[in-house]
Amino acid sequence: MSLPVRVSIVEVGPRDGLQNEKVTLSPQIRAELISRLAAAGLSRIEAGSFVSPKAVPQMAHTDATLALVVRDNLRLSVLAPNLRGLAAALSAGADEIAVFAAASETFSKRNIHCSIEESLARYAEVVAEARRYGVMARGYISCVLGCPYEGEIDSGRVVSVASALLEMGCFEVSLGDTIGVGAPLQARRMVERVARVAPLDKIAVHFHDTYGQALANIFACLEVGVCVVDSSVAGLGGCPFAPGAAGNVATEDVVYMLERMDVETGVSLDRLLAAGAFACRELKRAPASRVAQAYAARCGGRAETPLGG
Amino acid sequence: MSLPVRVSIVEVGPRDGLQNEKVTLSPQIRAELISRLAAAGLSRIEAGSFVSPKAVPQMAHTDATLALVVRDNLRLSVLAPNLRGLAAALSAGADEIAVFAAASETFSKRNIHCSIEESLARYAEVVAEARRYGVMARGYISCVLGCPYEGEIDSGRVVSVASALLEMGCFEVSLGDTIGVGAPLQARRMVERVARVAPLDKIAVHFHDTYGQALANIFACLEVGVCVVDSSVAGLGGCPFAPGAAGNVATEDVVYMLERMDVETGVSLDRLLAAGAFACRELKRAPASRVAQAYAARCGGRAETPLGG
């Protein structure tokens, strides 16, 4: 097994990360964070969400956020769960949209208040409409290795949701271990099953570090050819199902691992660390990234000190 | 690449962990911790060190610690850097001793105040004498993937130190990434080079989580047949070269990964979490283990709450 020469990182901190933080950042600060992440070399960034600001106040004014970011070699994606969200995304000039399905029936009902089938029917309309406007759609699948309500999830269910999302026109599916319970072998086997129905370059992996398994899972998936990895700067977001535990894998930790293995990412670790330090300062929290913690300790500084770049 | 059916965990928390903690625990508490770890199913435990108590006060009275532990299906190992340490180890009834060499010349001089060659000459005497008493000796090698003073370390240097340790009669070499800088590919390549001169069952890996790479490194090494892994309950020890950063990989995180991949360890995760919670309570610190943090968060309790078993 050999690793890909180059891996694309999809930075999800400004959406998946920030929407799970207690502090709500202004559109200006969110735009500044996105700009700093772009300057660090991240060219795919999830920038916000067009959902009800009552339900997710952290993502309010995503349109203003997008308007403030200069887009140069940068694809900004937003969550658009329905036709209304899509209209707002199109009008805000999103480069890409994302829809969010689950591999667990119970999680789907509790999280987006409909069955998997109902969600897929709705997304089919959203994706078709987006494509009419030349906007690509990404499909997320949550709970691919376990569900907080149902426990273990059979990979067959992941395969069928992935097939449905790709058939309706999603250019990529992101397989999310939402509660971070998976270990490398399972993660790899699940990806291999999905890879039987989807080309590998349409498969992204999205791991959470709740049980510390994220990097090992990523490595195991890279070994079978996955080359798109989601991550969140400074590990922003935490775990909604275990407050206090780690959440999204930190982009710094992913970039460090890839850089040390000579896998190209196009990302400057120093600039990324500085962007993460900026976010943590605004959120008044410490980074969950082990790399950020180690650099801060080595520099004799606190986690919130900018570390370079 | 397939994983080993069973992995032996060498628990280093009571020595490598505790010697790097600010709080010094009494021999009674250390013995209690060792007993709890043994009750969790860990059968190889590094229990202390026969070095100067002035240099390492945390390890003073290792003899008293050993005397307090009931040994049933349990191998207790101690660091014995010279013949005097060995005599003390033999008289305390250690089941196994360990010597501590480096793959970096500068690290050897700064850490144990002699060249690699001088250290190996001394250890040859210690190991030979231990074997005369029927006591097995383990050889540690530090800085196998990087040195805080010299930077990158060529694997060829690891190979020659490993060969020397095995030739002098060590039953096993533990390859330590002391500052946690290595990533999975390098870790695996280094192990593969050592495996050309040593049988795989004589090679243990010892990773630090400073940059979050430890579990990924372990997974990559298991894939090439390594089946002995060092780890420290609750991630005790931290990183002496970056205070505030993570240190030894946490045993809980290793056991979680192996258990989820159906690799046998003989360890009860619940009992292990309880032992880690006990240690953290005594040390007045939070566990560095992501698994311990997630379980504590899930239980709605604080990190120091015993979590089961």
Describe the structure concisely.
2 copies of one chain form a homodimer. Chain A is an alpha/beta fold and 309 residues long. Chain A is built from 12 helices and 8 strands.
Explain how this protein is built:
Chains A, B: It holds the Pfam family HMGL-like. Chains A, B: Keywords: Lyase, Metal-binding. Chain A contains twelve helices and eight strands. The first copy, chain A, has 309 residues and is of the alpha/beta class. Chain A has an eight-stranded parallel β-barrel with strand order 1-2-3-4-5-6-7-8, surrounded by six helices. In chain A, α7 links the parallel β5 and β6. In chain A, α8 crosses α9 (214-222) and α10 runs antiparallel to α11 (269-283). The longest helix of chain A has 17 residues, at 116-132. The A-B interface holds A 1, 3, 180-186, 209-213, 215-216, 218-220, 239, 241-246, 250, 253, 256-258, 260-262, 289-291, 293-294, 296-298 and B 1, 3, 180-186, 209-213, 215-216, 218-220, 239, 241-246, 250, 253, 256-258, 260-262, 289-291, 293-294, 296-298.
